[in-house]
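From the pipeline queue, job 12 of 40. The input is one protein chain; the requested action is below.

Action: predict structure.
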Amino acid sequence: MWYSRFYSSTRAHRFMADAAHHLEVPMQWTKAVLSSLWLVATVGISACNDGAASTAPSPSQQSPTASPSAQVSGATASSRWNELARNLSQKYGPPQQVGLRGLAYLSLAQYNAVVTAESDAAHPSARGAATGASVAVLSWIYPAEATYLESLVGQPDAGAAEFAAGVLIGRGIGAQVIASAANDNFNLVWTGTVPVGPGFWFSLALPPAPPIAPRLGDMRPFFLSSGSQFRPPPPPAFGSSAFLSALALVRHYSDNRTLEQDQIAKFWALPGGFKLIPAYHNFVATDLIARHHLSERDAAHTLALANQAAMDGFIACHDAKYTYWLLRPTMADPLITLSVPLPNHPSYPSNHACVTGTFMAVLGTLFPSEAPHLKRLADQAALSRTFGGLHYLFDGQTGLAIGRQIAPWALAHDVGPGQLFPIK
């Protein structure tokens, strides 16, 4: 077959050697990555971005035990409630785009509640405001947990009136965010058809299933003017020399996958053991917040900015995916083997790269001393999908480019000190 003949050609091997030389990313593992690698060896691997069944051990059927009221050194209320949100995502395993949307609205409500409380002359508690907003939004996302979440509100020994006033403010902001989310076009019904022809993606799901989130590109963004604002140019034409070279590189990794490359692919399929990929990004953010001793307002702002921008990265990625409908490498060359499961949506560009590229670029600007490390994380996330056989190299490169355009756009449209994020 044509792909086998091309793969064995001298030109293909020369391309792969050049790519390995010029496109290698640093392989030094960060402390967070190293501490999580053992999870990869002991749990099954979930799909990269949406909908594929996870083989990780089932989380406890009990409600999460990590209380956001616990005294965690250096942590803020916003950070602790984000930790609880991560725990809930482990329990319920929402699709990737559903989980990230929830984190974006949660952190938006938290920040606006904290700012509103801090600007109130009666001095309601900012911690109470973050708590009220969190309970409201998380109860909307996980209604079966509403009673449990309410039980976590509690009352402080001192300043009970101020805390209660803050909770009331937070609940009101949370209600505004929930009402806005009802009209964000996230749940638009797809009535289209999958295009048919050479180079087009097709579903390999068994039993047959429609593509995942084909209308996500039409969701109302948080910062972008539309999902198509940073739409990339088309991928290399199917059968072109650029396409065949990219396909040959995937086949090369498939046939010669090293233990390290396999570990990288598996880590980023289930980073830190999180079934929800953006939960790992969220963990990175809360870890930085604690290590840099951010205030309640600054912590909430960091989470709101990064989570909302990352959701815009997801929106932009799916806009491109369902504009071009590019087939996966394993569809072009069935001899390519996968290191991790294949998600049921088109190849170009990579969700991992779009979302991680956006999130880490935002954090890198907010924490400039951490920027090189955060960039390496995003580069690794993108390359991991080529190591695993799921994506062409240009899928990851384009996804990173999208994310690294969205991040400065979001930062340029950030709100000023003491100002509220718009609730559209």
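Job complete. The two ends are 53 Å apart (CA to CA).
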